Amino acid sequence: MERIYKPLSEKTREEVKEILESNDMDALITLPLSLGEYEPDWKFAQDTCMKLAQHEDERVRANAALGLAYVARTKGKLEKNLVKPVLLQLLNNCEEYQWRVIDAINDINLYMNWRIGKKAIKRIEK
Question: What is the residue range of the signal peptide feature (predicted)?
Answer without folding.
Answer: none
